[in-house]
Amino acid sequence: MTDSRLFSLHYSADTTKYEDKKKFRNRMIKYLHDVINEVDPQNTQKLCRQQMGITIPAYRSSINILNFIYDVENEFCKEEIEIHNILDLITVVYDSWDQINSHSLKSIREKYVININKIFSEESMCYVLHDDGKVRYYPDEEFQLLVKSTLSELNNKSYAAYLKQFNNVLDEFYKKRSEESPIQSFFALIESFVLAITKKGYKQLNAQSVEELHKIISSKVNNYTPNDLNALEGFKEGLMSWIKMCHKYRHGKGTHAHAIVPIEIFDYIFSAGISIYRSLLQLNEKFQLGI
Question: What is the dihedral of CA 202, 204, 209, 213, to 10 degrees?
Fold first, then answer.
């Protein structure tokens, strides 16, 4: 294994609550403690020391003095341990099992990946363990940068309610990956933002309210070239395309809330939606659209 497999080289120390929180740490460390001691603790300890410079201490079991317990919990609950250390350990554990009998290795690793990702999802964390043992941002680093920049844009007293709503959407996004309900929540957020700008009795985010938004923005610009105005028209069309995609997963029935959306479409809707939301925030800041 090379160090490039470890998450720490892809990590930003400027964390959000989706990257680090105590409850998640405690749950993940407890699981890693159990699985390390259950499968191949000696080899995991060796690789952890080689790759991370951390030695997992061991002590004799009180039940069987011939056995050792590798104290992952105490070692990785120390104050100096960073979140990226825990995420690196996930990959180290995966790779330390290379010497296991080949007939059982595949099933052990498959179960491990499922359990790790279950913890990531249930704790609303922005990570995923891939089948090759690499931990990365979910769905990717570009999306994580979009999230952080949007949170930065929302760090404004006038956006307090929208910041809370955006965080609620992110909680759903990470917890209910590929389900319909996060799409519905995100649509409601952008709908509320656009309708707060239009202020003409519109009750839905649709072609009429988007056209009104476009008129309001166009009326504010005084130095746009014809090409700039055409590009602004493209923004309107992009917003309408996004709305049409979302409508495919907004059935308005509780029974559809947990319906599965293909992961590539789910991720695209959120990536495109966050880009649109950031643009709306920036347009509001520049042209004072009324929020």
Answer: 100
